[in-house]
Amino acid sequence: MANEKWNLETNSALTSEPGSPVGLVDAPRTAEQHVTDRPADYGDKIVPPKPTWFKTADGQATGAGRVQPREIQVYWRSNIGEIQAHSKMPPLPPLPDQGGYNLGSRGLDHIYLAGHRITVVGEGDVNVPGSDTDAVITGYWDRTDPVRPQWTRIEPETEYTITVAAYNHDHVSGPASDELTLTTPAVGYDQQHNTIPPGPVNDLAFNGPLPVITSSAGGPVTLRWTKQLNVTKYEIYTNPTRETDVPMDPARPGLNVGDVKLGEVNQPAGTAQSVTFTTPNFTAPEERLALKVRAVRTDANGTATGPFSTTLRSQLPPATATPGKAGTPTLTESPIVGGQIKLTLVPPSIGPVNGAPSYYALYDGARQVAAVQAPLGTAPHVTLSYKAGQTYSFTAVAGNSLGTGPASTALAGTVPTPAAPAAPAGLALNGTPTTTTVPVRWNAITMDPPVTAYTLYQGTTNKGTVAAPNVSATVSGYTAGQNYSITVTATNSVGESAKSSALTGKTNAAPGAPTAVAVNTVTSTGMNVTWTPPTGAQPAVTSHKVYDGTTLKATIPAGTNTAAITGLTPSTAYSITVAAVNSVGESTKSTPAVTGTTPAA
């Protein structure tokens, strides 16, 4: 391509090689052919482009302004500077989107723009002179009688269909925008129409020198403007975007895309003639400032917001020294999943010797892989896509207009290659076992490729599978008092892990029978009974029952292992047994039965 030659008349490649006589593929075009090939609009006056309305997130046209009972606020894009190609032109290279204001061969069309005409379809129109791309419509000219047009006010509870078209100084109008249909609310639906919006702040200025950033805390900017009449408070905004022509934000009427609220300040009391506001601290040298203020009025009828001041633009002073050594980058999310490496950058210390950074460069070895403007903001700051098995050695360098600091200590590693999971950890009871089931839980495994399922085992017997991301299950199929030894494995697209450590125990059951039952201190009408409670009961023993044969003589709470039996008959033999009770049931009676005989009275 570097050695190709082109015939500018025919737009065709030349047949000759460099240094040889030139031969043309096509003969030169005649003047008549040039005239024939002119586009149909050749020599016509420039026609302004078609304006477009802003779009909501779902693609619906919106005026992006407030609709009041007696006024309609609308915004639009004039699309000035759009390149208008025709079939005779070679393909145009793509240009970066400038929010509807593309720069190109038609980039000076705005010198022909005289204004816009807003048409209320079927009703009338109103002109907006100049290059403004917003308007508050309170009425329109009804031109039914072209000699005596009538001014007609916007009315509540009325549907209006609006279009906008640009016209130039040659009195040539461009095509109208698509129709936008709006309905005004009823009077009282929105009380803001009863509150007159305050006027703009006209003298926004800095109230002192801009801060030189000499510490990590940064420094604030102080603003000043003249106190407005009948104002409740002021709202202060900035816009960190680098563009100077930022479109309106359809989701936030009255604001531009990227506007960030810095704070509010109430109207000063007393005789003060000016208002001041101190911003939050800025931490990056040479950071661009785009500050603006608007007044807010609140009264018994509601709240109204005035227009913004002219944007106050400036730039913080440069740093006083090159930055120090940045901290070692860290993994924001570990382990790395799907090859997505998310890194958090660590700023250097800032002081008289080490200046504040205005940017950061991230390197993998000697290759720069990312750049981030200061301040860093919230993590993660950098996300990179690497292949499985790829090694990395990330270092960060902080820089400003005076130079760069030394590279940070490296964060080195390897993007995991696909492998089967490791054995799950944290297997434990997830509640109380029953006589036939054991509820369990374990720790989730995060990896790449991801875990898709977990399988439970009793010994070597598969007891079922649960799909990830579930990390709990109930293992069933046991009998009362059965010992269990449960393990769990994890599975992904590569394979199944080894088994986890075993969770052992036994299922719930009624307790065993008490032992060492004895009868003592026998009287003609009573006796004492003692016993040893069963051990290892699950669930725990809650009480003991003392029987004479099949007759219940006493119920004693757990923890007491003796019972005084009264109301017996003299000269009578009694066959004493004891049973233990828990939440599952009652044990068998103790054996053998112990005989106690009361003496005669």
Describe the secondary structure blueprint for this structure:
Elements: E1 6-7, E2 12-13, H1 31-36, E3 52-55, E4 61-62, E5 67-68, E6 71-77, E7 113-120, E8 124-129, E9 134-137, E10 139-142, E11 150-153, E12 159-168, E13 180-183, E14 205-206, E15 222-226, E16 233-238, E17 260-266, E18 274-278, E19 288-299, E20 302-305, E21 312-315, E22 327-331, E23 340-346, E24 359-364, E25 367-373, E26 382-385, E27 391-400, E28 403-404, E29 411-414, E30 428-429, E31 438-441, E32 453-458, E33 461-467, E34 472-475, E35 483-491, E36 503-506, E37 515-520, E38 527-532, E39 543-548, E40 551-557, E41 562-565, E42 573-581, E43 594-597
Antiparallel strand pairs: 1-2, 3-4, 3-6, 5-6, 6-9, 7-8, 7-12, 10-11, 12-13, 14-15, 15-18, 16-17, 16-19, 19-20, 19-21, 22-23, 23-26, 24-25, 24-27, 27-28, 27-29, 30-31, 31-34, 32-33, 32-35, 35-36, 37-38, 38-41, 39-40, 39-42, 42-43
Biggest sheet record: 5 strands, antiparallel
Quickly give the structural class. Answer: mainly beta
Shape: elongated
Radius of gyration: 43 Å
Strand content: 35-45%
Low-pLDDT runs of 5+ residues are: 1-24, 82-111, 189-193
- Figure out the total of helices: 1
**Helix coverage percent of residues?**
under 10%
Distance between the termini: 130 Å
What is the tally of beta strands? 43
Mean pLDDT, to the nearest integer, reads 84
